[in-house]
Amino acid sequence: MNGSNRFRFPGTLGKLGLGLCFLLLPLASPGQYTTKGTLFTLQLTGPISNRLNVVFFSEGYTTSGLASHFLSDVTNAMANLFTYQPYQEYQAYCNVFAIAVPSTHPGSTHPYYQETNGTFFGSSYDPVYDYIITIPAPGLKKMTNLLTSLLPQASLPIFLVNDYTDGGGGGVADVISVGPWQREILAHETGHTLGRLQDEYDYSYPDMNLTSSATAANTSQTTNLASISWNAWITNGTPIPTPDTPANANTVGLFQGANYQTNGWYRPQHDCMMRTLGTPFCAVCSEALVKAICQKARVLDSFTPATNRIITCTNLQPLLFTLVQPQPMTHDLTNQWYVNGLPVHDATNKDFTLWPAQYTNGSYTLQVSVHDPTALVKADPSNCLKGSLTWKLNVNVYELKLDNPRRVTPDGLSFRVSGNAPYGFIIQGSTNLTLWKGISTNSLTGGQYDFTNRLTNANGRFYRARLLP
Asked: If you placed Cys at 179, which of 72, 166, 260, 427 could pair as Cys (CB 3.0 to 4.6 Å)?
């Protein structure tokens, strides 16, 4: 596993309080833990097909350790991550799972101390110098096999190493220990694995080739404003490059020093989680993470009715269209419904009721556009935060109307039948509105028909027209 993940620890770091709710499942019996893995669901906020599915793997947990504290350790780790933005805002976009497999020995291998432990995935790290936990190729193959068998829709795999010495790593999966800096290291490593972010350190390690010629969402080698990938965040008048002074502590600009280089590489802000552990993600890194989350969890979970057929309205009963959406913590998604490309006034809810009586017979297109208006994203060229649906409608309401009654002779009555009756209609008469008798069967011509009838009942007669089946 690649791990260009040195850690810059600040001198002091305050811990944030937790106020999150997880679903804790009962611990499995020791007999359930096999090398084939036992899958647990810790947080389920929506369909697996439309969520960022985070899955933790046990590493260095013996059978007794799995039974006693693995799920508790996973719950604490994920709760810690959700104290950071943007994960806190988009917690409802994440499902959390755990896959438990037993190791022969607890902990991890530490070559510096010549300490070798038999663990399921074969993790190892130097707890004195670089703190980078590595998983060898055979261990990654085991991870792939477990995911294929138990959770093929996994989005963010994380190895949780049962070792109290701080360490971590990123690449195809995150690796973290249960050490005291776990919260900060986990957030940093997700920046690499999920956000594809680079380290923003400006110091090098001569013994390791940690530089990269490729830029990321948070690193740049150009001072040309138009070519800086985060230029949407840079306000007019910001000097480029941006002086790293107290006055620019909260400015988004182009600060020199990143990717283990003092010169020639630039970062968006003075400080960031990708530079100093415990610091919040900068605006640009946060945006990259939001877009990565929303690539997995789109703005629409499900909807009714289906869109793969033409919906025909043959009566005046209203039609209800419904959206099911994920919900950010502090803001709402925006919806706008359109008929034939024109926005419907005040139609901005998840539900939309179409009243056929408001439309003449014919073909229509109903569309809804959904957008996440979060202030955490300035530019979304891939439309990760948008979605739309389209329904094809055919309004063909069969309706008859009687009007224009008039006396045409001393004992004759005429009225007009109009509307839409493709199979003809029958006129019925009644003297008590209970018993109806057919009088005449006819068809519309040009949408209307004139009916004349001789009145034979001095007490009057009621008329109605009904569609033929």
From this structure: 166
Q: What is the pLDDT of residues 5-16, one digit of tens each?
A: 555 555 433 322
Question: Cα(432)–Cα(460) distance, rounded to whole angstroms?
Answer: 10
**463 bridge partner residues:** 429
Domain 30-193 sits in which CATH superfamily? Collagenase (Catalytic Domain) (3.40.390.10)
| Domains 30-193 and 400-467 in one fold | no
Is residue 387 scored above 70 in pLDDT? yes
- Residue of 88, 101, 16 lying closest to 56 (CA atoms): 101
Q: Please tell me which residue, 198 or 210, carries the higher pLDDT value.
A: 198
Strand-strand pairing, 310-313 and 386-395: parallel
Class of domain 302-395: mainly beta
| Enclosing H/E stretch for 263 | strand 261-267
Q: Which residue has the higher pLDDT, 425 or 18?
A: 425
Distance from chain centroid for Cα 399 = 44
* Domain 400-467 top-level CATH class: mainly beta
- CB-based contacts of 131, cutoff 8 Å, min separation 6: 6, 7, 125, 166, 167, 168
Distances (CA, A) of 18 to 52, 84, 161, 257, 328: 21, 11, 22, 34, 18
